[in-house]
Specification:
Layout lengths: L11 E4 L5 H12 L3 E6 L2 H13 L3 E6 L5 H15 L4 E4 L14 H29 L2 E6 L2 H5 L6 H21 L4 E8 L12 H9 L9 H11 L11 E4 L7
Parallel strand pairs: 1-2, 1-4, 2-3, 4-5, 5-6, 6-7
The structure holds nicotinamide-adenine-dinucleotide.
The site of nicotinamide-adenine-dinucleotide has 29 residues, from α1, β2 and α4.
Amino acid sequence: MRSVQQDLSGKVAVVTGAGRGLGKAIVDVLAARGAHVVVNDLTLEPAEQAAAEVRTRGESASAVAFDVADPHKVNDAFAKIRTDHGRVDILINNAGIGDFVSFPDISPEKWDRMLDIHLKGSFNCCQAVLAGMKQQGYGKIVNISSVAGKRGDFIGNAHYTAAKAGIIGLTKSLALYAAPFGINVNAVAPGLFATELTDGMSSEMKATTISRIPAGRLGRPEEIGRATAFLVSEDASYIFGETLSVNGGSYMD
Ligand SMILES: NC(=O)c1ccc[n+]([C@@H]2O[C@H](COP(=O)([O-])OP(=O)(O)OC[C@H]3O[C@@H](n4cnc5c(N)ncnc54)[C@H](O)[C@@H]3O)[C@@H](O)[C@H]2O)c1
């Protein structure tokens, strides 16, 4: 049973990049706590499938496709979401890509695409919801960073870590700006979770990473779902600009 503080009934949430993986796990927890969840992905099919799964459980979700890196598409999509649902209470910036390359192999194109999706994508969506949240005097934003954004990455995967560190800076600045309007902005920094993103890691790299996790295992996607749901709940009403580590103890700061 959920507490009054955890109840999200009547809230409208948007989760980006949520057709699979951690985003989908976040969708499932928010919907189970009563929110209507708008599931975003690059294409409609995975988003609609995730939303349909939510609806089969008698909960509420719909789907929308857009590329978070495209500010015009983002603005159009959020305008339609507001028309359809009246408001956006919760935004989870989760969309992302992996690219497990070493520093010398990061081309300028790879650098730009990584920063465009993770950092500019999060910025685009934050800007698209902010005016409405200010008007409501209520809003919850969670940006998905990474342990790599706090600690760095062992193979020199600097475009990913720079984007994820940038998300922590974005989170703090926006939290300072938005707090007076009744808006909580925070971040979650996952450690290593078994999703299609981390399928791109070599088995050797994965084994080495797991050997550095005191909890002795990969994270379970629902553990990101619950941590994110905590940050958008009234249990976290006095938390601003925090980046919550969910990493099995693999990095502490
Ligand atoms: N899996 C991990 O161990 C891990 C660790 C730390 C951080 N993260 C972060 O968590 C988030 C989710 O990761 P995941 O493991 O679930 O990845 P995933 O690859 O399983 O899912 C990512 C989803 O984002 C979507 N997406 C990609 N680019 C997009 C765009 N431009 N616009 C909209 N959607 C887009 C993809 O289509 C996909 O459905 C990412 O930001 C990732 O960097 C993951």
